[in-house]
Fold:
Amino acid sequence: MAHYQGLIHRYRDRLPVTDSTPIISLNEGNTPLIELINLPKKLGHSGRLFAKFEGLNPTGSFKDRGMTMAVTKAVEAGSKAIICASTGNTSAAAAAYAARAGITSFVLIPDGQIALGKLAQAMMHGSVVIQIQGNFDDGMRLVQEISADLPIALVNSVNPYRLQGQKTIAFEVIDALGDAPDYHVLPVGNAGNISAHWMGYSESICQQTAACGLCNGQCPYHIKALATRRPIMLGYQASGAAPFLRGAPVSHPETIATAIRIGNPMSWNLAWAAVKESGGWFDECTDTEILEAQKLLAQTEGVFCEPSSATSLAGLIKDLKRGKIKPDATIVATLTGHGLKDPDAAIAQSAQPHRVAAERQAIGHLIQRYLKGSDLK
Ligand SMILES: *Cc1c(COP(=O)(O)O)cnc(C)c1O
Structure:
C-alpha cells in the first residue's frame, strides 16, 4: 500500500482541490476505529460499538481534518496569516498547520479556560496567543470582525473548508465498516463537526434523492454510492452549555468539558438539519456523567480521551439504559480529542500515587493488599 499522505491526498476526488493546490498536511486522518469489547458487555449492548479515536491525529484532535483543508486553501489564496477563536484544540491545530505552511497564526483563547496541553501546543508552535477577558463566543465575534477588516484568513468552522476536511471522518468509517453504522454519536460545541459528519455520510449514499422508481441496485447512482444508508445522528452537549436543548443561545456557558464550553454555536442550522434528517436527537450530560464516562472508557478499554470527547459516551450510556437505542445496533462514537490534552482533569479525578519508602518490604506490603483484593491471586 502506498505511503499514507493525509486526508486531502486520500480523498482528493471528493474535496475542493486541484492538481496545483499546495497541500499543507501533517498526515492527519486515517485514525483507528477501535472496537470496544468490554463496555458493550457492561452496558448490556449486544451490538457492536466502535470508537473513532480522533485523539490520534497529529495535534491530538479532529480539528486537524478541518485545518489541513482551511490552511491549504488559505495558502492557495495567497494568505500570509490565519486567525481563529478557540477553546483550545482549534488553536493547537491552527498553530501547527501555520508552522508547517510557514505563515503566521493568531489565536484568541478564553482567559484561564483552556486545557494545559492545548495552550502548550499553541505556544510551542509559535502562534501569537491572545488571551481575552471573555469566553469563546466573545472571541468568535471578535475574529469575525477582525478578519473582515484585515488580510487574515479566518479558520474557524464558519470557514467552509473546515467542514469539507472534517467530512472525511464519515468516509473513513464507511471504508472501515463497509457501510454506515446504525448510529453515530458525538459531542456538540460549535456544531461544525456534527454537520461535517452528516455531510460526509450524505455524500456517500445514492445521490438520486427522488425515488426514481427504476432502482434495481444497478442504476449508475447506486453503483457509485459507497454506502446504502446514513446513520441516525445523536449530538450530546454538556448541561451547562446546551443551547440545542434550550432552543436558544446560552449566554454564560459553563462546563468542565472546556472544548464544548460554547453558548452560541455557529453551525446551528446545519446541526439541526443533521439531527432532524437522520431521525436523531440532541441530549445533555452533566459534568459528573461526562467525567464518569471518561474514566470508565480509560479503565475498561484503555482508551484515554479528553472530557469533551467522553460526552459522546456519557450520552450514549444514558440512551442505551433508557432503551432509546436498539440493543443490537452498530454504533460509532467519535472521540474528538486525546486525554493528554487535559492532564489536570485526569489527575483531579484519579487515584493519587502511593507515597512509600524506597524499600522492597514497604512496596511488597502494598502490592499484597491489591493482590488480595483482586482476581489475580
Ligand atoms: C472542537 C471540539 C469539540 C466540538 O466540536 P464542534 O465542531 O465545535 O461541535 C468537541 N470535542 C473536542 C475535543 C473538540 O476539540
Notes: The chain has a mean pLDDT of 94. Residues 61, 63, 89, 157, 187-193, 259-260, 306, 308-309, 336-337 surround pyridoxal-5'-phosphate (CB under 6 Å).
